[in-house]
Amino acid sequence: MVNSADLVTIGISAGLAIGILIASLVFCGIRWYKKHSHLRRCANERCSTALPIRTNGLDASIDSSASVSNSIAIPGSEFPAKDSHLFWWSHRHDKDQLASASGIPRYSYKDIQKATHNFTTILGQGSFGPVYKATMATGGVVAVKVLASNSKQGEKEFQTEVSLLGRLHHRNLVNLVGYCVDKGQHMLIYEFMSNGSLENLLYSEEGQGLSWEERLQIALDISHGIEYLHEGAVPPVIHRDLKSANILLDQSMRAKVADFGLSKEEVFDGRNSGLKGTYGYIDPAYISSNKFTMKSDIYSFGVIIFELITAIHPHQNLMEFVNLAAMSPDGADEILDKQLVGECKLEEVRTLASIGHKCLHKTPRKRPSIGEVSLAIARIKQRRFAKEHTMSLADSDLSRMVSRIENQQVELFEIASFKDKATE
Asked: Membrane-crossing residues (predicted)?
């Protein structure tokens, strides 16, 4: 007969064995779940990298991180690059939810078709595709950018722009008022900027020309827009494609930064994003290191500053003129836009050129922050205002003095007349 003590021992041993078995099963289950979740996440990330690129050209942006050929698949991905468009559309409902979460209204294809009179009100052609002027049902006038069927800009940049501009709001950023994903079309709807791009105003033969005061204000407006992206947004945003073509002006000639398709939040993800930007505006340090930082945006802004001073396009050897001007304190006088000669104060031109040179410093860490740039440009305007105010006060004092003398002369004349009458 079994001893009661033996039964207790057997029971305890069996309980421990069962407990260890259950714990082992739970541990293995957790490991299996985590492993498969990680694999699914990695697969999704690899799929999202199979994206097309923008066409290269005079005003086109580049993205060398994308496939060289649309038929080349990303290693390790189950989806070849040539099917990236179809893959995106298979997930369009998820992406629509992302865009809707940004708070940007979605419009139907029929809404846009009606607003653009069946797409006949074309304003121009960009790297994204054609741009149309539209009058919405509410009466508001907007600009509609349509992703061309042969465009290389891609759906990722479309989604980037919608998601970023859904949370970025500043008076010097172009406002995205809606989007459309319908009938195989992708469209972005912006506030209408009646004076077009800075590039057209500077280089178009039909352009009305910009005064020095307007150029100085445009530089300040751009700096405020970038300052918001770098120092006001959370997390900060790097534009990565600053150029005169992406600076738009409203009816009051106030400048706003546009085109956020290549923009990126400054969150390190450990991945190499590839070369992005537009030739002539790309930071040389970025080309050599493939690391795009806020200081790369500063470099691009430095190029725009010299465009404002010279009205010379980066593709017309602008940097050669800039380097020559850097050799002497008054070098900016020699490259000043002919339209501005005799129409502006050279001291202000030299000060703005000095700011531009600092932005173009070959060592990124030695370039100023955008906050410092904004403050420096603002000081140019403040000094002008102070001088004008001082001159205005001087003119006012002189006017009062002349008036006082005239009054005294009248009083003396009246006294003399009174004495003459009294003598008679």
From this structure: 12-33
Q: Are 164 and 263 in contact (CB under 8 A)?
A: yes
Residues 285-327: pLDDT tens digits?
998 888 889 999 999 999 999 999 999 999 999 999 999 999 9
Note whether 46 and 76 are within 8 A (CB).
yes
SS3 assignment, position 360: coil
CA distances from 158 to 37, 162, 163, 229 (A): 28, 6, 9, 19
> What pLDDT score was predicted for residue 84?
39
CB 278 within 8 A of CB 60: yes
The better pLDDT of the pair 64, 132 is held by: 132
**Cα–Cα dist 367/355, whole Å:** 10
* Domain regions of the chain by residue span: 48-192, 193-424
| Residue 278, CA distances (Å) to 209, 272, 358 in order | 24, 18, 21
Maximum CA extent, the chain: 163
Q: What pLDDT, on a 0 to 100 scale, did the predictor assign at position 101? A: 47
Evaluate whether the domain defined by 193-424 bears CATH number 1.10.510.10: yes
Residue range 241-279, pLDDT digits in tens = 999 999 999 999 999 999 887 777 665 444 555 677 889
Domain 48-192 has CATH 3.90.190.20: no
Sign of CA dihedral 257, 258, 264, 265: positive
Single out the catalytic residue among 63, 111, 241, 283: 241
Neighbours of 407 (CB within 10 A): 10
Mind giving me the DSSP string for 144-194?
EEE--TT-SSHHHHHHHHHHHHTT---TTBPPEEEEEEETTEEEEEEE--T
Element housing 238 (H / E): strand 237-238
Exposed, middle or buried: residue 113 (CB in 10 Å: 0-12, 13-18, 19+)? middle
- Tell me the three state secondary structure of residue 257: strand
Active site residue 241: yes
